[in-house]
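ingest -> validate -> predict -> emit
validate: passed (alphabet ok, no gaps, 296 aa)
predict: started
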Amino acid sequence: MTTFLISGGRGLVGKALGNMLKRQGHTVYKLSRRPKRKGHIYWNPEKQSIEGKHLHKIEVIINLAGANIGAQKWSNKRKLELINSRVNSIQFLKQTAATMPNLNYYISASGINCYGYNSQIEKEESDDYGKDFLSELVKEWEAASNSFKEICPVAILRIALVVDKKGGALKKIMKPIKLGVGSPLGSGQQYLPWIHIKDLCRMFIHCIEHKKEGTFNAANGYISNQEFMKTISKKMKKPFFFPAIPKPILSFFLGEMSTMLTESLKVSNQKIKQNGFEFLFPDFDSAMTHIVKNED
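emit:
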């Protein structure tokens, strides 16, 4: 059995992944600014402070730390917070790794919105970064993670929109649909990469177990926004007839952040498949069936 250290372990992915690892019999420690439970380790990257009691046991670091990208408008100040909350925490983790003699693997979350936007081309991991803010953020984020190569093997998962009923974007999207007022966003024709929470957790574990190295697109597939909203409405047995919300309105309320909802992105998942990973949910319909039924 392996001893893990998870940063960002109190978030949607961190909770699900931590629970899956524990069910498999592993030991999981989570970094937290407010440690309240057994297995939580105090840290504060801004103050360069961390509790060192259990660090000598750590074999694998799973980095999920970072401020919520969709929590508020992207002012210049907020953009800096989004970058620093990721890069600075990784740099501090790397400094701390000197107290982890058993560390043999590092894996980090990253973002799928790193290629810019294009409705025609299916993006692969070898493609260049885009020029927009999210692309620049991911570039810095991944550069910080790749610095761990000086210490141990490194893998990075570029995570698509995570599909989980318990939280994240899907929970917010389902609220108006429950009220019967679901509608497409923008043109509705833009493509959206997605991944089921169970497949994402399994992908992390697959990479760890097989010591995979490099960058991988973490997406079951992609779907048009209209089909995305329509499928959710259908599974929830709710009507879907309201007109699309125009792009200018979304831009007015969300600012630059609206591009995540209105611009198109296709990504390939062939690399992770070629590395032996098999998805549980081959399409969005099967993923939403599982989500709505709330199966374990």
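DSSP finds ten helices and 13 strands in the chain.
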